[in-house]
Amino acid sequence: MEKQILIIDDDANLRESLYEVLELEGFKCYQGKNAKEGIELAKKHNPEVLITDIQLPDSSGFQICQEVRKFSKEVIIIMMTGRFMSSDEKTQGFQLGADEYLTKPFDIQELSVRIRQLLSRRGK
Fold first, then answer.
1. Whole-structure pTM over 0.85, yes or no?
2. Which CATH number belongs to the domain containing residue 46 in this structure?
């Protein structure tokens, strides 16, 4: 069965690019344009992987992390950021349940390989 990935980002171009490449890589993808929509999609589809931007118009990736961890301990959460993150911020994210950080711009193929590694470590 296809692994499901949820992409949450208010940048439609990046969201679409991730969606297209990851679908070609054999994943089933869903897209959320903000935190509210993203959390609803996470509850509905229970994806194996959740990729979220840290800065969203209605919330933060940290809050999404916290919210999703209330109903899913299994999902792999990858945080994306367009700016430098202090070690305190990264630590906060890891404490809230993030599994990985990516700084934009990043190589989508590299992301795909990273997702597969994280999934295989979880035995999925």
1. yes
2. 3.40.50.2300
